[in-house]
Design a protein that fits this description.
The structure is a homodimer. Chain A is an alpha/beta fold. Chain A has five domains: 137 residues, Rossmann fold; 146 residues, Rossmann fold (3-Layer(aba) Sandwich), CATH 3.40.50; 159 residues, Rossmann fold; 107 residues, Dna Ligase, domain 1 (2-Layer Sandwich); 114 residues, D-amino Acid Aminotransferase, Chain A, domain 1 (2-Layer Sandwich), CATH 3.30.470. Chain A has 25 helices and 30 strands. Chain A has a seven-stranded mixed sheet, sandwiched between helices. In chain A, β15, α12 and β16 form a beta-alpha-beta unit. In chain A, α15 packs parallel to α16 and α20 packs across α21. The first copy, chain A, is flat, with a radius of gyration of 32 Å.
Chain lengths: 698, 698
């Protein structure tokens, strides 16, 4: 898909320089030194030869075609250089030069012009303001990075060129194998979505790793990532998660950071494994690139010391994996190969004097156990430990049928073992806790792969009715939809709503109450009042015509006095709701990822305990259930302390109906049903109050 | 205090061996090779010379005295070897030999005998079943570890010999400076408390670091650690925190792991900084040993790349520290030294082409800013970055007035800088997140040092009365104290308890109700019934003599039918409690650390949300307030959503009274007041129900 970028036959460096401290020299040198076998064409009007290659004043003068153009000229010359490349038939461009969107409005204008030109000519553009890219399989180093990594199957993309340098420097020391690495720069044209799709199709890549500060198109990201993640794991480290982070981001590459919760929901939905730190990003990449996925979450630990075994067991339990009991057969076979004092339980303690053979036997036995899905091997360098021999034996024992992750703890003495592990494809971590966390990332991805197919239910609804209500509100410029119209919308989507009538006069109110049957609730109707109860606009349990009359008059009088500007449009008279568990169902539209459904238990659970979950719409029944289950207060719905279980299905179905509603109507910017009253199983659940916020256009 | 261990004039190795693969050879070789300048005496009846030293069949034959004996003979010969050492005047012993408590009852017996012998002769014993110890200042390597570390000011103690090996191996690679390192082994005599006290007094140690799987004496630990932490930081990594961990521990050194929450409370109380992982333990040790403590929590970040700056800002905010705005003066001075495109806000972005001078100027300016308490310096190795020069300039700029922590990210190119930092006393971390976490540990310790003096209030109470109640319960073998007696105890400690009377007959119940005034509550009294409401033993709002009579008879009838074995001792008639916010106050006695006070909001907050805090008694007013504030639901007490603030002081005082009660009476094993009803400020708060569990002897 991005062949011209990753596998060009010829590369032009426009802005190639003779001066060794110039970026334009570095890139040319990198192309030559890293062994690119295609044609390399330096372009510079003031030189006839650079680094032994004939140099041309322009590609027009060069006369033949090039596949990839790397542009490093000063900003004012960029447009001409790009035109020159396109004229020479370039299918892809990398603009290294900075000074575009990241510097302000003028740079942004220039960038837009640049992108427009490329798109008009169907040329893909990486950058501007980037470090370039590299592809080890083609010996293509079209970047000014100082380091050329070993070949491997991890492909990285990074929105920070500096971080790309740090990763390459890390790779150089730790012999991390890399397939492709792309500096995203300002993402003028090629962005994370293009690269995820391309790398998913790339046979040399087995794990896609990204550092991102923003995402360009959230909808597309979810679709692209979901498709790609079905083929190979995607690990993303997204920074700018807190307010302080966001402030720093907005002063950085000029991109707007979306809300962290939305990113979390989008990643969860699309199977992207989220790294929370720089170290996790590399830790996870290593595990995914080197080891098969676990089929389950039962872990065995092999160790030559009790302490690290305890650490691993702690970490396994805390992160939610299982320390698997070993099968009787495994324990028998371990007893046959281990000394008497060793532990054949899990952790399998091979003792401080364990040699390579004893370690290998234990790892073998653990892998062979049908009750074990993954093995973590720990080693401390003790007096008689022969570290490299042991590492080799463990690497032999790890046969690729189940994931094996190592933590050889220490420094000087374990260094040769870690080197051997890197060569043999066995990931090693400096501490048991990090090995466990990496394994957990594998389990999380494997769980996502095993998920049931996503089937979004479509309920029969009265869509036309909602269209009319929304059109009317928008015509009246009433973007806040009050209770009366909100409940009409909900009724049209088959929500259970208490019977109620809009009454403009006292007598209409009495008539409505009599039609509904006492007792009733009465609520003020006004386009100017959102929080009705705060100003005395809600009265409950009115049990007689007199009470209705008195309340009507008092409400009009007092609210009229308190808010003389508010347009009062009568009252809403409604049947009293039964008591029940109150929950909040809602939706807010994230600027990146679109409609995010929310669920939480009512009142303090949302406001004080912040015990809510979000999920990106459209949502399946399975996902709706997961939303409920992922709140801490879920136990209250299931029934605790002798309270009855409430109708959980009613909540799940309502979330799905909201999902359908907000997917059908992009005009709905925000909404909530608060409270939604959940009855007992088989009983009545209903939307007791609701409000919507509309926007004029999508 | 443990001079003979750390600074002996002479050392005997009893069990010295000629065979290079024997531990008894390794220890002797370590003593010689590491340059111990005192007398070294090998003891072995079958050799006349080992490693060039004259060897004696016994210390009796040697004839002179030794200060420290290192015993490595086989287990059956240990007692005789120890006696030989003591006979030669040894003041301290290290028993390397294994096969004691960790192997079962027989080994435990032998260990007890060994310890008895040493204590009778006032000889301190390290081990048995340990790796030995080392002290770099004295060139004393009385261990069989393979690595001799550089001198430094970190002192380690480890309950796992293997982990000691791993730390030493890590130290060898990363040039970590160490003062003393002790393998605790079975802790037969010398334990963590002895070592914390000794290392606190040791002028060569500036941070005490421990890996522990258990603590021998919780009370003493708190006292010892609190005193030591007032002098220098203590970092402890305690493993065995989860159920899986605990199972692994019990099969390890035979020590029982206490409850994790109790360890957390004990560490918090005594100022111990808890490391959650092996890496954190070393990360924190590095920060504490190298940098001064921060005076506050406002952090400035200096970086040559936006991405890592965002990561640091994210981590700072997430962990609860503050990204400090810089003062105008600092921003002015930064504008003077940085290029125009650089950011003089926080993070201070010195740009990708920053040289050493620009970095130094930025670090200088950040340190000089009165609004900054600590500085984190990030670097990615970019095209023109001169890494070692930059590191040297930063090390010069870090003048020791405020903590400076670095994260030079990468591998190969940053390695020389990290080496330089280690030499110059500037801690470097592989990622910004780890630097931030280490800084946070420093802030946590500095906060503990700044805490107000602990003044435990003593309330005037009727202690005699409680003594009589408890004595009576114990005489009757009633370890479960029911509501009637429980409330008598609370009244004696001046808790507000609703008026109530124990009534044995129907007419006594009516009389009691009339004395109290209607409405009343009625509760069954029986030593055999703990959960009264579960069997219909609680009725509320009885508003007339008839209601009291009927309820009495029905309760006796129905409970008698349901629990024919239960002894029914009438009812407790009590004034109805006012409504109010319900909280739970309680105490459970941890086997290690003694009475742990608990606080939580009632009902679901405790049972579903697990939103509770613990603190070790006795407690100060400050600590009681902190307990309340550290629950998520605290906002409900302060008043949210228009609800009134409740009487928080009433809760804090009640916790202090419970603290006094359970400190006064070790017989109280557990208790709770559930619910404690908190009224509005200035109103009535009271203990609505309570129960105690007693134990016969302390």
């Amino acid at each position: 898909m991005l062949d011209a970028l990753f596998s060009p036959g010829s590369v032009a460096v426009v802005g190639a320089s003779r001066s060794p401290d110039k970026v334009g020299n570095r890139i040319l040198a990198n192309l030559i030194e890293c062994g690119f076998t295609g044609q390399i064409v330096p372009v510079n009007p003031t030189a006839s030869e650079i680094l032994g290659l004939r140099c041309y004043p322009s590609l027009r003068e060069y006369g033949r075609s090039v596949d990839l153009g790397v542009v490093v000229v000063p900003r004012p010359a960029v447009m001409a250089a790009v035109e020159d490349c396109i004229g020479a038939g370039a299918k892809a461009l990398i603009v290294i030069t900075a000074g575009f969107k990241e510097t302000g409005p003028e740079g942004a204008d220039l960038e837009r012009e640049l992108v427009r030109l490329c798109r008009a000519r169907q040329v893909r553009l990486v950058g501007p303001n980037c470090l370039g890219l590299l592809n080890t399989e083609r010996n293509l180093n079209a970047s000014f990075a100082k380091v050329w990594p070993a070949r491997g199957h991890i492909s990285f993309m990074s929105q920070s060129g500096a971080l790309m340098s740090a990763i390459l420097d890390h790779a150089a020391l730790h012999r991390l194998g890399i397939s492709k690495m792309i500096s995203l720069g300002n993402k003028g044209d090629v962005d994370e979505n293009d690269l995820i799709a391309a790398l998913a199709a790339d046979p040399d890549t087995n794990v896609i790793v990204g550092y991102l500060e923003s995402i360009m198109d959230g909808d597309k990201f979810i679709r692209t990532a979901e498709n790609a993640a079905a083929r190979k794991p995607i690990v993303i480290f997204k920074s700018g998660v807190t307010q302080a982070g966001v402030r720093a981001a907005s002063s950085h590459t000029g991109s707007l950071a979306g809300a962290d919760i939305a990113y979390g929901a989008a990643f969860r939905r699309s199977g992207v494994i989220r790294a929370e730190t720089f170290e996790q990003m590399i830790d996870y990449a290593l595990a995914f690139t080197m080891q098969p996925l676990p089929k389950g979450e039962r872990v065995a630990v092999v160790t030559n010391a009790g302490g690290p075994g305890i650490m691993a067991a702690d970490a396994i339990e805390q992160i939610g994996l299982t320390m698997s009991p070993l099968s009787e057969a495994t324990r028998d076979s371990l007893r046959g190969v281990l000394p008497e004092a060793a532990s054949s339980a899990n952790p399998i303690d091979v003792l401080g004097d364990a040699d390579a053979g004893r370690y290998a036997a234990a790892v073998h036995a653990a892998i062979a156990d049908p009750q074990v899905d993954a093995v973590i091997v720990l080693l401390t360098p003790q007096a008689v430990t022969r570290v490299p021999q042991t590492a080799a034996a463990i690497a032999d024992a790890a046969d690729g049928s189940k994931p094996v992750l190592a933590s050889f703890m220490g420094g000087r003495d374990v260094a040769p073992a870690i080197k051997l592990f890197m060569e043999r494809g066995l990931p090693n971590y400096p501490s048991p806790e990090r090995a466990v966390r990496a394994l957990n990332a594998m389990c999380e991805y494997a769980r996502w792969l095993r998920r049931p197919p996503r089937i979004v239910a479509r309920f029969p609804v009265n869509r036309r009715r909602v269209e009319r209500i929304i059109a009317r509100q928008l015509r009246l410029q009433q973007h806040q939809v009050g209770e009366v119209a909100a409940k009409d919308i909900l009724r049209a989507y088959d929500f259970n709503v208490p019977p109620g009538f809009h009454a403009l006069t006292r007598e209409e109110a009495v008539e409505a109450a009599e039609r509904i049957g006492f007792p009733v609730a009465m609520k003020i109707v006004s386009p100017d009042i959102i929080h009705k109860s705060d100003i005395g606009g809600v009265r409950l349990n009115l049990d007689s015509p007199e009470a209705v009359r008195d309340t009507f008059d008092l409400m009009m009088l007092r609210i009229g006095q308190r808010l003389p500007e508010a347009r009062l449009e009568g009252v809403y008279v409604e049947k009293m709701c039964p008591r029940g568990r109150e929950v909040i169902l809602g939706m807010t539209r994230d600027p990146q990822f679109g409609p995010m459904l929310m669920f939480g238990l009512g009142g303090i659970f949302v406001e004080v305990m912040k015990d809510v979950t979000f999920h990106i719409a459209p949502i399946t029944q399975e996902e709706a259930r997961q939303m409920l289950e992922s709140t801490r207060s879920y136990a209250l719905l299931r029934g605790v302390r002798g309270q009855a279980r409430v109708d959980i299905d009613a909540i799940a179905v309502s979330l799905q109906r909201i999902s359908q509603l907000v997917t059908d109507f992009p005009h709905i910017l925000e909404m909530d049903i608060n409270p939604f009253i959940v009855g007992p199983v088989g009983g009545v659940s209903l939307a007791a109050d609701a409000r919507f916020t509309l926007r004029s256009a999508r």
